[in-house]
Design brief:
2 domains; 7-stranded mixed sheet; 10 helices
């Protein structure tokens, strides 16, 4: 009867063979020789490996070798699987708190590798100064209905919708000094999706209600909205993102996380993805291309 060590060694050998095969495949793809069938085959293999990786992440001991092998395989397939998957898409990025350079680079790499571009970036001052916000709102005739602590969630939701939809953004224009710490990109063009990063600890009271509304507003337009964080985040925001209806990726610093983000922004099944026990799976399912002619 085979023991566990033999089983793990066999799995490792299989993964090694697959990795060698995919390295050859990636080399061919760079010369434009990988056709749609081969890419679909890669997607199928990676989907199966993500399942095994998810299972292995729940166990310990000798099976850690299996997890590392699966991670290596996904790392090598990543360039092929994301290439042009978001071609021409324009994505808004929101930092709740100051911009974290490492997370920003990971998000930008995901977008660039998939052929998308960052449409605009907004980093918010957190916690919010409710008195300053109310003062700014009171000076705008069309915004007075949002004045008061009881209206913070509604305010956040409208701001989230404005940020994704673009066009005229009267609330953001009037509250820029009170809410925005850093910005890049204009506000006119509509976004095709949004990425949210929280870099501050969990908030309380008025700021907490405001942020919940903001997250709900970012995801209210039917476009992909994804909250992301690194695998070593001290204060996870996954629970609050999920409560607001956003998809999540908890390992954006890894190739699996960047691939998951790209798939979600491309319209894959929403949900909570990553390597933590709270995730429903490592990766979203790959979308099956619709055959031409229906």
């Amino acid at each position: 009867m085979f023991d566990l060590r033999y089983h793990v060694a066999s799995l490792a050998a299989v993964f090694l063979a697959l990795i060698i095969g995919i390295l050859v495949g990636v080399g061919l793809s760079d010369r434009g020789l990988v056709d749609k069938y081969k890419k679909t085959l890669l997607e199928s293999r990676v989907a199966n490996l993500s399942k095994q990786l998810s299972n292995a992440s729940q166990r310990s001991g000798d099976l850690a070798r299996e997890q590392r092998a699966a991670q290596t395989y996904i790392n090598e397939t990543y360039p092929v699987l994301v290439r042009n998957r978001l071609h021409g898409k324009k994505i808004a990025v929101v930092f709740v708190g100051s911009v974290d350079d490492g997370t920003r680079r990971a998000v930008e790499r995901s977008l660039n590798d998939a052929g998308a571009q960052q449409l605009r970036l907004r980093a918010l001052k957190v916690p919010i100064d409710v008195l300053q916000v109310d003062s700014a709102l009171a000076s705008q005739s069309d915004a007075k209905g949002y004045v008061g602590k009881g209206r913070l969630e509604a305010l956040g939701k409208t701001l989230g919708d404005e940020l994704v939809r673009g066009g005229e953004t009267p609330l953001w224009n009037g509250l820029a000094d009170a809410l925005i710490e850093q910005k890049a990109g204009g506000s006119k063009n509509p976004a095709d999706g949004v990425v949210v990063v929280r870099t501050v600890p969990p908030q309380r009271d008025g700021t907490s209600r405001f942020l919940l509304g903001l997250y709900e507003g970012l995801g209210s337009g039917g476009l992909p909205a994804v909250g992301v964080e690194t695998s070593d985040a001290a204060d996870s925001a996954v629970a609050v993102y999920e409560k607001a209806g956003l998809s999540t990726v908890d390992d954006i610093d890894k190739a699996t996380g960047r691939l998951a983000l790209v798939l979600l922004l491309a319209g894959s099944q929403s949900g909570q993805y990553g390597l933590r026990p709270s995730a429903q799976d490592v990766l979203p399912p790959f979308q099956t291309p619709t055959p031409q002619g229906g």
